[in-house]
Design brief:
The structure is a homodimer. By secondary structure, chain A is an alpha/beta fold. The first copy, chain A, has helices at about 70-75, 85-105, 120-130, 145-155, 170-180, 205-210, 230-235, 260-270, 280-290, 300-315, 320-340, 365-375, 405-420, 430-439; strands at about 60, 110-115, 135-140, 160-165, 185-190, 195, 200, 215-220, 240, 255-260, 355-360, 380, 380, 390-395. The first copy, chain A, folds into 3 domains: about 1-55, no CATH class; about 70-315, Type I PLP-dependent aspartate aminotransferase-like (Major domain) (Aspartate Aminotransferase, domain 2, 3-Layer(aba) Sandwich); about 320-439, Aspartate Aminotransferase, domain 1, CATH 3.90.1150. The first copy, chain A, is built from 14 helices and 14 strands. In chain A, strands 2-10-9-8-5-3-4 form a 7-stranded mixed β-sheet, sandwiched between helices. In chain A, strands 11-14-13 form a 3-stranded antiparallel β-sheet, with helices on one face. A two-stranded parallel sheet of chain A has the order 1-12. Chain A starts with about 60 loop residues before the first strand and ends with a helix. At the A-B interface, helix 1, helix 2, helix 3, helix 4 and helix 8 of A face helix 1, helix 2, helix 3, helix 4 and helix 8 of B.
């Protein structure tokens, strides 16, 4: 057996087969002309031999994503590969596009999965729509709105932030006021489902206001797509992006996006080049469109997986799927209430698929999460940014949104809260959830 | 069964579950304020029902990638998911990093897979190393050098092109002359294995010259890594990127990269922000380093696959793997010679894993490829750019580099050439190949 990175075994050096020893970086070699640098704090664990087969522990994924993946999707993903220009793959791409149009409720031709995760979808939309100096009104009420503003500024745009406290949504009058402040707004960008807070942002009014001011409307639908209505055409969304590992219940790795006619027109009128070659939609549309010009090698297996995940969505039907997400959210919320726990997002704007739960005083947020993982194999998420240590995030997305999982996580939370010294009535949470299902 | 995009079935409209009909874009709605746009030529095929399970045709992948994938890798990829911050996944990340250091022959701490394909790796390296105004000497002798220059310019860099005819390599004296022309060169960038031409670019002299002129050295190792020596530390490569779907024989979707101390120092001395949030190495290193700060959701299943593919590489050993690639290339070249076919890359600089074969006069390039695919299930590649229609590209990468495949493709090519009216002696190619193996 080859030994990788061992410290006390003979290591051949200087030839192609030599074995790498991890070490800290930071000290530059004497010959370097570039000193004075403090290396980022990265360290690697020593690996002393070729590791064995990876055996992932059994987990119930009830965090902010990835969500549970249906066995059919795992099986589809493990099919032998074909080439990215194979006629069979090209036909498959068309099916993926048609299925994505279905879940996005759009007729947009340019609807396809970008070869990266949801954040690559965000970046793809922004770098194609925003040119240096463009004013962009962006809602900032959580991690992902903050991220959007960051990406807008890296693209040379002027981010006009519309802020709301974390857990609350942005109001149309705030969007309108921001649009009035702009000289010539190019884009309004909102996060439909703020995964960091559980807030459910209404979009149609903001889209209408954007258009009234001559701006485009961009929606982050990473967490909402496939779990709550996303009506791209009817709501006037000009561009939207999503991720595969949330309510589509596909492994992470692709970012479905859709661009409508107005967004394409803006693309056609650019006076500067798109700063990203990898995410340049004009080039990408030549591969995903009818020319089939090679751009990059599409992630074949991930597209197999996405196609199967979308087939499952279509078989269930969108309305049934949204109703399922709604019902399981309701049951979870009832159970949490019986445990004395409250949701962090404002009432009336709570997402069905992502529940940010306020951690009660005296309870150790991380310890509860660790207990759920270690004792029950359940993953839930912690808080991000200002909500770090203050909330748990329970995701009921796609395949994770099941009655069995709601009951399982409520029972585990009851145990964990009791272990934290809270007095919780045994079974009350389960009964509360069950009464929602029985209703 | 739901019907997606059908034209002659009742379609509910206006509600969340409505079904999307594909159509041509291009005509803008009357209310649009942005006219005069000619839409890109994209069209979608009509999809009239939920497609059935995807059954990929059996293919032998002997093109420029993706290559054949070992069943162990497909199986590893189909394991149930864990979260991207799960302790089990974090431990796995360390193993992936250690195994990547082994194939890159480096001790660089910052060695990990970027969540995109090889071109995302290219873009990650360039946008992190190049700031606006930076001079970059870049070898341009094929598609990928051309792409590098494009990405450099999109990052605001000044691309100082060192050109060579397609199929030939860039000479050290050309690199030196270009460096002398620069005011203050920041980077020298070369493609190690030019997938479009089959040319094998030597790197050590160019790396030395870069350092003598105070510049960094970046190598595109997309097609070489795992199939030919890539000695990051010994050759003085400061940054390198690769792809998974070539000689690592893993499905496409990740781009292994490595950054050495000098490259990290340059990162630390940047005066401008990295234009890409998704590919910002300072942020990425906080997730792949010891902080484990959430950046984006890593493609879990793709990392499972990469880990298993790298285990196969380590089990075989790099020297044995390189020897295997060399031997199969030699046998293929002998067989091609017996068919009267010549390699397009210059002698002495021919890649073992990618063979660009000159199409003889009177032979229809595309027809031969189509015949191989349709009659034999063999995928080989066509030419790109100025080589379009003039070469075939036969890849013998990773699992594709096997004696059985060499013999199979030679036999099929013999058939196809005969069908094109060429007089080829039956079995001569096989005999020539076999005599290499017998030697």
């Amino acid at each position: 057996m080859l030994v990788v990175g061992a410290r006390d075994v003979p290591v051949r050096s200087g030839d192609a087969g030599r074995l790498a020893r991890p070490r800290r970086v930071g000290k530059l070699s004497a010959g370097s002309t570039r000193g004075g640098f403090v290396a980022p704090r990265v360290k690697c664990a020593p690996v002393t031999a070729i590791p064995g087969e990876f055996a992932p522990p059994a987990r119930l994924l009830l965090g902010p994503g990835p969500s549970e993946v249906h066995p059919r999707v795992l099986r589809a993903m493990s099919a032998p590969l074909v080439g990215h220009l194979d006629p069979a793959f090209i036909a498959m791409m068309e099916e993926v596009k048609a299925l994505l149009r279905f879940v996005f409720a759009t007729e947009n031709t340019l609807t396809f999965p970008v070869s990266g995760t949801g954040s690559a979808g965000m970046e793809a939309c922004i770098v194609n729509l925003v040119e240096p100096g463009d004013e962009v009104v962006v809602g900032v009420n959580g991690v992902f709105g903050t991220r959007m503003a960051d990406v807008i500024e890296r693209a040379g745009g002027v981010a006009v932030r519309v802020e709301a406290p974390w857990g609350r949504v942005v109001r149309p009058e705030q969007v309108e006021a921001a649009l009035r402040k702009c000289r010539r707004p190019k884009l309004v960008a909102l996060v439909h489902a703020e995964t960091s807070t559980g807030a459910w942002q209404p979009l149609p009014d903001a889209a209408r206001l954007a258009h009234e001011h001559g701006a485009l409307f961009l929606a982050d639908c990473v967490t909402s797509l496939g779990g709550a209505p996303v009506e791209v055409d009817r709501w006037g969304i000009d561009a939207a992006y999503s991720g595969t590992q949330k309510c589509l219940s596909c492994p992470p790795g692709l970012a479905p996006i859709t661009f409508g006619p107005r967004a394409l027109a803006a693309l056609g009128k650019r006076t500067t080049r798109v700063q990203s070659w990898y995410l340049d939609l004009t080039l990408l549309s030549q591969y995903w469109g009818e020319e089939r010009v090679y751009h990059h090698t599409a992630p074949i297996s991930m597209n197999y997986a996405l196609r199967e995940a979308l087939r499952l969505v279509a078989e269930e039907g969108l309305e049934a799927r949204f109703a399922r997400h709604g019902k399981n959210h309701e049951a979870l919320a009832a159970g949490l209430g019986a445990l004395g726990l409250a949701l962090a997002a404002e009432e009336g704007h709570r997402l069905p698929m992502l529940n940010a739960v306020t951690v009660p005083d005296g309870v150790d947020e991380a310890r509860v999460r660790t207990r759920l993982l270690a004792e029950h194999g359940i993953e839930i998420g912690g808080g991000l940014g200002p909500m770090k240590g203050k909330v748990w995030r329970i995701g009921l997305m796609g395949e994770s949104s099941r009655r069995a999982h709601v009951l399982t996580v409520l029972a585990a939370l009851e145990d964990a809260l009791r272990a934290e010294g809270r007095r919780v009535p045994p079974g009350a949470a389960l009964a509360a959830a069950q009464s929602v299902y029985a209703a």
